[in-house]
Amino acid sequence: MSGPLDASGLARSLIERLSTVLIGKRDVIELAITALFAEGHLLIEDVPGVGKTVLARSIARALGLDFQRVQCTSDLLPADLVGAEVWDPSTGQIGLREGPVFTNVLLADELNRMPPRTQSALLECMAERAVTIGRERRELEKPFFVIATQNPASTAGTYPLPENQLDRFLMRISIGHPDVDAEREAVRREDGHARIDTIEPIGEPSLLRSIGESVRAVRLEDELLAWIVDFARRTREEPDFESGLSTRGAQAYHRAARALALVRGRDYVVPDDLDVLLPYVCGHRVHCRVPGKNPGPRLEELREADPPTVLR
Predict the structure, then answer these.
(1) Are the C-beta atoms of residues 141 and 187 closer than 8 Å to each other?
(2) What is the pLDDT of residues 90-140, one digit of tens each?
(3) Which end of the chain has the lower number of beta carbons within 10 A, N or C?
(4) Alpha-carbon distance 113 to 268, whole Å?
């Protein structure tokens, strides 16, 4: 069984390999690996052409995982996603046709273009890592990691994700455009997808089976745990917020902090881990009373008023 140090080594190897494809975005890669290690899912909200698909495919390639991509459209049905029972005339039997969710890494492109019924089907997959087709319940592959994207610049023909769907994502991030030097290198190479095939796989999917135990073994001091709970309660009491951080959101914050510590080569959480993760884990779980207002600045103010520290 791999321990914390072995898992940290795996994280470093992943970041190095993925950085050769997604140039100049080491911080984004670190967050994505953190979400994977924490057994969560990742929502990427960004404009087209910044490397969302490249990131998802690179993670799958580097770990030897199965990969499926779904282009979400307004006519996508739940059966198109999870599968369906179909009649086989050659055998005279009804069999199961598996949908694309039967994979390890699923990229759901432009998630908010999917109708609510299909969004709900994906919700079950993400929350329970299982699907119900007909009367049969089927467990999904392990690991099962969803990377979903949505374009913030276009709202025509979209179905905004409900709060319970957003809450299923451990983090919401954006990739953004690279700096000048990184963009020059990316333009020179032209095809990032071709570079994915040059990634040398680290190993088999079994490498990830004990990562969850390694994350749970990471130490988080009682003072930091108390700060997470207190911070969540303060967001619920904040008059600018329609809804604050739920208990499940606080659990996600706690789990992500331990995963980030592991990715960074430590078996203990430090306050900086909580600082780094705050906008990505909490930003999409807190909603302002003023529609369209970004809760991020107010979350930062609440943190700065009482920053997380460890008593020595």
Answers:
(1) no
(2) 777 777 888 999 999 999 999 988 898 898 889 889 999 998 887 788 899
(3) C
(4) 40
For residue 312, the model assigns a pLDDT of: 42
83 and 189 inside one domain: yes
**Which of 127, 162, 169 has the alpha carbon at shortest distance from 36?**
169
Residues 185 and 257 placed together within one structural domain of the fold = no
Tell me the two tokens of residue 159.
Answer: 């179905």
In a domain, 298, yes or no: yes
Least confident of 141-150, 203-212, 215-224, 247-256: 203-212
- CB distance 310 to 224 below 8 Å: yes
- Cβ contact 262:8 at 8 Å: yes
Residue that finishes a domain, picked among 196, 226, 261: 196
Looking at the domain assignment, is residue 267 inside a domain? Answer: yes
Of 20, 34, 13, 105, residue with least CA distance to 65: 105
- Beta-bridged to residue 108, according to DSSP, are 70, 148
Name 173's Cβ contacts closer than 8 Å, sequence gap at least 6: 28, 31, 32, 42, 43, 44, 45, 280
Residue 204 falls within a domain, yes or no? no
Amino acid at 179: D
pLDDT tops 60 at residue 79: yes
Q: Give the span between the Cα atoms of 88 and 83, in whole angstroms.
A: 15
**DSSP E strand boundaries for the chain:** 42-45, 67-71, 83-88, 93-98, 105-109, 130-133, 136-139, 145-150, 171-173, 241-243, 287-288
The answer to whether the CB of 126 falls within 8 A of the CB of 168 is yes
